[in-house]
Write a structure and sequence with these properties.
33% of the residues lie in helices and 28% in strands. The protein has helices at residues 11-20, 47-55, 79-86, 115-125, 148-159, 177-184, 203-208, 210-219, 242-251, 253-263, 287-292, 318-325, and strands spanning 24-28, 33-39, 63-69, 72-78, 95-102, 131-134, 139-144, 188-191, 196-202, 227-232, 235-241, 268-277, 301-304, 309-314, 330-333. A hairpin with a 2-residue loop joins β3 (63-69) and β4 (72-78).
Length: 334
C-alpha cells in the first residue's frame, strides 16, 4: 500500500517494508570495473576479444557482463580484463560493484517484495546514479567508484535492522511527488515481443555446452532484441529468448540438449521484457526506482546498461503490470 505525499508515515507499512529487507546484506566487490559499448557494425571485428572473455581463462577477471540488443553489445568487466582485450583506458571513471546478499534460502535475486524499488529509491535520494544487474541468485548495484562509499552507507542504512541501543533505525525515505514526476519525465517503456528464460551455469557447465552458448550469443543471424550473459566469481547467468532456444533445438539438437541439461535445474521461463530508455540514460537518478515501484509486488529481474534498462516480470502478470505502469508512463507494445 502506498503512502500519499501529504500523509504521515505509516509505521506498520514501514515495519513491513523493513522486514522484507531484513535478510539482506551489502558487500563490495574488490576491483574497479570498466564499461565498453561495441556497436553492431564492430561486433565481427571484436569477436575474438568477446570469445576470449566468455570462454577463456578466468585468471584474468572475475566479472564479465555482455548485454546485446539491436544496437550492439554493452560490456561491464574488470578494468584489468578491459586493458588486456581493448588496450588502454576505457576513457571514463571506473565503476564499483555492490553485492546485495540474500541470506534467506527461500528468496533470491530481486524477488524480495519491493526490494529493488526501495533500494533504488534510497540511492536516488542520496543522488547516486546506479546500474543494476539481477540474477536468479543475486542482486548487484553498479555505482561510480567516486560515490561507492556513499552508496554502501545508503544501502546498509536501508537494510540494517535495529540499532545497537535497541531503537529502530530511521525508516526508508519516500520519494516526493516532485521526485517521482522528474524521474518519470521522458521515460519510454517498450514491451519486447516474445518470452525470455533465465538460467544459471557454472564455468564447468559452460565448457560442456559451449557450442550452444556460442550459437546463441554470437552466431545467430540478425540482431538480438535482448540477450544477457553475466558472470561473477565463476557463477554465470544467462537470459535468452525462448524462440532462440527452440530454433537451436531444431538446428543443433545435440548442442541444445547439452545446454538444456545444464540449465534445467534452475531454468526460469516465461519472462516478459520492458526496454526502458530515458533522456538521462540508463543510470539516470530515480529512473529504475520509478519504473519498479508500481511493480513492487511482482517478481522482478533487471539488467541495466548506460543507454537501456531492461525490467523483466513473469508473463502471468502482464495485464497487471501494464495496468500499473500506464498511468505514469508511455508504454509501447512491440
Amino acid at each position: 500500500m502506498k503512502k500519499r505525499a501529504n500523509e504521515a508515515p505509516d509505521a506498520a507499512v514501514s515495519a513491513r517494508r523493513r522486514h522484507d529487507l531484513s535478510t539482506l546484506s551489502v558487500f563490495t566487490y574488490h576491483g574497479p570495473l570498466a564499461m565498453h559499448f561495441i556497436p553492431l557494425s564492430q561486433t565481427a571485428a571484436l569477436l575474438p576479444a568477446l570469445l576470449s572473455a566468455v570462454f577463456g581463462s578466468r585468471v584474468r577477471h572475475s566479472v564479465f557482463s555482455l548485454c546485446s540488443n539491436t544496437e550492439g553489445s554493452f560490456l561491464l568487466l574488470d578494468e584489468t580484463l578491459h586493458r588486456e582485450l581493448f588496450g588502454g583506458s576505457c576513457g571514463v571513471a571506473p565503476w564499483s560493484c555492490l553485492y546485495i546478499h540474500e541470506a534467506s534460502s527461500e528468496r533470491s535475486g530481486a524477488e524480495v517484495s519491493g526490494a529493488l524499488s526501495l533500494l533504488c529509491d534510497q540511492l536516488a535520494a542520496a543522488q547516486v546514479p546506479v546500474l543494476n544487474v539481477c540474477t536468479l541468485a543475486r542482486n548487484f548495484m553498479i555505482v561510480k567508484s567516486a560515490l561507492s562509499d556513499v552508496a554502501v552507507s545508503t544501502l546498509r542504512s536501508a537494510v540494517e535492522g535495529p540499532t545497537p541501543n535497541g531503537n529502530p533505525s530511521a525508516p526508508p525515505a519516500e520519494p516526493t511527488m516532485t521526485t517521482k514526476a522528474a524521474a518519470a519525465a521522458g521515460v519510454r517503456l517498450q514491451l519486447l515481443r516474445g518470452l525470455h528464460c533465465i538460467g544459471s551455469l557454472s564455468v564447468e557447465q559452460l565448457k560442456e555446452c559451449s557450442h550452444a552458448v556460442l550459437h546463441l550469443l554470437f552466431l545467430r543471424k540478425g540482431a538480438h532484441a535482448f540477450t544477457h550473459f553475466f558472470e561473477m566469481a565463476g557463477e554465470i547467468s544467462l537470459t535468452l529468448e525462448e524462440d532462440a532456444l527452440k530454433a537451436l533445438e531444431q538446428a543443433e539438437p545435440t548442442s541444445a540438449k547439452a545446454l538444456s541439461s545444464a540449465l534445467q535445474p534452475r531454468l526460469s521461463r516465461g519472462w516478459r521484457v520492458l526496454d526502458i530508455t530515458a533522456p538521462a540514460g540508463g543510470d539516470g537518478i530515480g529512473i529504475l526506482g520509478a519504473v519498479c515501484r508500481p511493480l513492487a509486488k511482482l517478481p522482478l529481474m533487471n539488467f541495466s546498461t548506460l543507454d537501456h534498462t531492461y525490467v523483466l516480470f513473469p508473463e502471468a502478470h502482464l495485464d497487471e503490470a501494464l495496468k500499473k505502469l500506464k498511468p505514469s508512463f508511455d508504454v509501447v507494445l512491440e
